[in-house]
Amino acid sequence: MQLDERPETEEVVLVDADNRQTGTAGKMAAHREGALHRAFSVFLFDGQGQVLIQQRAPGKMLWPGFWSNSCCSHPRPGEPIEAAAQRRVREELHVECRLSFLYKFRYQARFGDVGSEHELCHVYAGYPRGTLVVDPTEIADHRWVSPEELTREIAAQPDRFSPWMKMEWQRITTDFLGQIRQDCTRRP
């Protein structure tokens, strides 16, 4: 089935620049049109401070096959963002995790003539419990890497990574990595 032939079932929350809800839209339509909507990104860290990155599945509408952060998605209408982030980590990676909110930002990135991300994105660090089991419809590959290695990989081959991940990782390494490393040593 072609991407554009799939039934539109998931909705995203449309917002203005101040994060006030302005409506809802089908997920695929919002991405084709570049409508501003709520989203979240989660970076999972293990007890040694390594970060989980994933390669997006080939069936993804936007940036298929690109490496990205551990988990990213959208809250459902009426769903709190942190609850949505925990839900998607469970669905995609089959682990529970403690989340720490880091920051939010707005960005827009176009993927050829397919569509674009235009998101008000809430970024979290997460600390998982359990053994990862990835959903192959969402994730083609995954691996744990040190923050330093990830920074080197992004610098050497930026075109292999999703645009939001590169922006988020830059801010995380600049403003939050010290605290994240401390949190990793205090994992439950």
Can you walk me through this structure?
The protein is an alpha+beta fold and 188 residues long. The protein has five helices and nine strands; from the N terminus they run ββαββββαβββααα. The strands form three sheets. The protein has a four-stranded mixed β-sheet with strand order 6-3-8-7, with helices on both faces. A hairpin with a 5-residue loop joins β1 and β2. The longest helix is centred in the middle third of the chain and has 13 residues, at 81-93. The N and C termini lie far apart (43 Å). Residues 1-7 have low confidence and may be disordered.
Summarize the structure.
This protein has 188 residues and is an alpha+beta fold. It has helices at residues 27-33, 81-93, 147-156, 163-175, 177-185; strands at residues 11-15, 21-26, 37-44, 51-56, 67-68, 71-73, 96-111, 115-129, 139-145. It contains 5 helices and 9 strands.
Question: What characteristics describe this protein?
Answer:
188 residues; alpha+beta; four-stranded mixed β-sheet; three-stranded antiparallel β-sheet; disordered N terminus
